[in-house]
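Lab manual, section 2.4: Encoding a predicted structure.

Procedure: take the sequence of the chain (491 residues), apply the prediction step described in section 2.3, and record the output as structure tokens. A sample record is shown.
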Amino acid sequence: MDSVVYDRFDLFRFMREMWAGLTQALVITRREIIDTLRDWRLVMPIVILVTVFPFLANFAAVRGLDFVNQYGAALIVERLFPFLMLVVGFFPSSFSLVIALETFVGEKERRSLEPLLSTPLTDVQIYIGKLLAATIPPVLGSYLGMGVYILLLGFSVSWWPPVELLVISFVLATSEALVMVTAAIIVSSQSTSVRAANLLASFIIVPMAFLLQGEASLLLFANYAALWWIALFLLVVNVLLIRLGLRLFDREHVLGRDIDTILKKMWLTFWHAFLPVGGIRGLYFREIPQLLRNFKLELLFTVGVVIVGALCVGTWASENFTLPAELLGFTDRLDVETIQNAAAQSGLLPSFSPWAIFVHNVRSLVGAALLGLFSMGVLALLILMLPIAIIVYITQQVALSGFDPWLFITAFVLPHGILELPAAMIATAQAMRMGDIILRPPESGGGVPGIIREFGHFVKLFLVLVLPLLLAAAWIEAEITPQVAVYFFSR
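Recorded output:
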């Protein structure tokens, strides 16, 4: 009985301490919001976007609906209404970058940060207070703009969004603003000039703009389930960024020149990671094996997630989208020229040649690596998962048509896949490591120095290991694989 009372006492004391800490953080939040509202340079753009842009979006929606009604295609424009609602909510929240970048680096330049850091407030209270202050005004502006747009559209064309669409739109607007704010505060806390912070802010706004385009395509097909998954992904990213920001924020070093020093030495860090130190023999027998051992966990995770995810996606697609039987009855007309023409007509390649295949694979892996850098490796995994899921889908369709699926894989995939798939796995695993290394503190090899170092490792691996494997795989895919397929399936 005494232990139960003691546990309850500890719980109540913990809750009181948490509330007291939050109350102190809200003091900073209130101070920062008041300062923001006093600065007309920050307030006026948000006010203009909230008051003017909904009317412009409503004008475009009404005129577009009147135009397409002449041709009976009103559904197309009506599917664009939710996208305009997201855009109306995105623009005010994008100004959260400006406010968040000013939270630390702006006060550094104005010499007003030292008194705040000398207060008895903890680092967590200061960080959370500034995080809330940079988030609340833009998010409220997004809510207001979306509300005005919905009312205008409802009264002008009698279109009201479904409840699920309304909820997911507000959730996405909030989560996107939170991600931009948490990332911008990390940049602001580690910068010493607004100019340097603004340069690094492009790494935040660019992926969010691409994400908005992806959400537009999902809204066009009314795929609300995928939007909920995106919101969940943004929530996870936001938690990781808050965790990283709390670990990086230190009042003793916040006035230093961390990022500026790193930017000056970035080329030195890159070249130190990129250049081989033991010649060709040392490169292939010591450095490359050591690099593979360094990200063996990422490699195992990549292999597991990509294969399991591809199997699930390919199986689901095979069960829901069955190919016509006549499309799979190819054995009676199979020859090398037919395979080459079919591959060229697929639209994925300009021609079925070793060089075209090689360029396509290199472009895909490099693009996946860049997207992985902005998404902590997640998009790199998804991009690699897509072609493997297509192979799983086609293999299962071949099996449903009465052919041996293992023979199909052996003939059409294995000859070049035995080189191409390991190369893609290695590049994706290194890209994933390059994307998630920022979650580690600098003293543990993470942060911006870790990204630069891992980028050097990625370039080294790509040039000396991945590119030769892809080149050999492209030649085999164009010259050998069709011969093997004809040998097994034309008898």
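Check your result against the sample. The mean pLDDT is 76.
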